[in-house]
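User: Before I run my own analysis I want an independent prediction to cross-check against. Here's the chain; please return only the structure tokens and, at the end, one sentence I can use as a sanity check.
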Amino acid sequence: MIITPHQRSSNDEPTTVPTLWARTRAVLRWPFTNRFASVLWLALRLCLGWIWLQFSLDKFQSGWLSSDPIGAIMQQIAKGTLPVPLAFYRDVARTLLGLGVTPLISHVMPFLELAVALAFLSGVLVVPAAIGSILLNVNILLSGIGVLKLDGRFVVTEVLFILAWRVVGMIGVQQLLGRGLRAVRHTLRPAQRAPALQPVPQPVRPERVRRR
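Assistant: Structure tokens:
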């Protein structure tokens, strides 16, 4: 087919703004909805989970279960010796010290970080763990002991985990255990025998008496 300069091929349709927006939206949604992106989320989960695991083990080894490091930090914040980004957090520190809950927080903190690490590493309950870790990171930043370059990256990554809730835990221990249990159940399940077909009784036709 010869196309003159005044004619257009059917494939040369003009790209409209809605079409470009639809394509851009599809590209942006791909990492958060497509199952092939679960490999990327697995790598991020393992990296972040390993870091949280190191935080937890360091606290176990440094004696957080038998001391009160949170109380010491809150005392510095309440006295004003430790600068905080927002002034209201000094009132929070005084409240925690007045309630006497800082030893409990110190003892629970290593277990919380360990739970977050195990969730990220295993792929089980990733979204609840991401929400909890965001709260931990925000609290660390508000207390003045956090570093925005480090904790800020953690928060951004954990927010992405929440946005990718459909596929973020697709590769993990839960799926592997589920497949293993289904395989074991299929192996141990007794073979269902089909019921034997019984012959259907045929109706007996009465014999006709022939008249002579």
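Sanity check: Residues 36-182 form one domain.
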